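tool_call: predict_structure(chain=1)
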Amino acid sequence: MSTSIQIGKIMGIPIRLHITFLLILPVFAWIFANNMPAFGFADVKPDSLRYALALSTAILLFTCVLLHEFGHSYVALRHGSNIQSITLFLFGGVSSMEEIPRNPRVEFKMALAGPATSLLIGATLLIIYYGFFRTDNSILNPYLRLVWLIGYINITLFIFNLLPAFPMDGGRLLRAWLAGRMPYIKATQAAAGIGKMFAIFMGIFGFLTAAIGGIWFILIAFFIYIGASEEEKSTAVNVILEGVKIRDIMSRDVKTVSSGMSVEELVEIMFRLKHMGYPVVDDGRLIGIVTFTDVLKVPKEERKNVKVSQIMTRELITCKEDDDAVVALKLMTMNNIGRIIVKDDGKMTGIVSRTDILRAVQLLE
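tool_result:
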């Protein structure tokens, strides 16, 4: 089951809404509807207008987050990076690109583009509010309050994203600055370490102030710590695998099964050969792949009557022997699979698994 839905494309980039975003949107609308001025509309009557303004504020907030991500994506596209999608999550947006450029100057520009977009939006709205509509009672006007609130939130996003901690943009800015003075992996480790320390202090502060709303600091601290750890691990793996080709780590002795085999027979083969996935080949022709995950979908008492052809995956994700090992790892991560068939000139020449890649990382370390 997919955890996100695509709502369209802009500049050729798929725009997706994660399930966590769909859950948090009404929560934000409720918060804005029940907060007093200037951070909400609890004083607005009738209730229909109050909730309409609150929902509009929540939607505009995440629209600004989307524009923030477009700032990153625009610079990335200008420098030749391929943006696969932009997804809105519980804590904001994420631009998914094939690879973050190793050039510190390019990464610095990309990281800065998002906060700069938030600053531009926030500054423009606040200038409009203070320059043209500001009076002693202007904040009591719910429509002008909406302008001020969106402007204020964007300035807050600008400041928050400049915090020197992954996965915020400030962490990438710090890494880009350090990468100009030390090896890339050491720069990542240093930036991630600072991010983790920042998260620990934020978590302690949240714990001490939990009684007055500090729980949010604890949640954000957890998010920052996990993000910093994942960035550190991902970068380390990518650097270690540089120069390693799929042909160097793949298995050439590939065990295959036929589509007419029963699932019960397949389970016996898995038990005997200790492999959890097999290409499906009929008359020398590759037609799919079947894994233990597919087997689990079939009740045990029915496995004798169900054929492999009924549960196998026909849409194959493949790679070539000359591809970098990192390419295979990214394909596995993006598609949530554990192995990829290797094909050259239309013929299957081997199979590479996540275990093969992790073993190579351990040996190279």
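agent: The chain is about 55% helix and 15% strand. Proceeding to next step.
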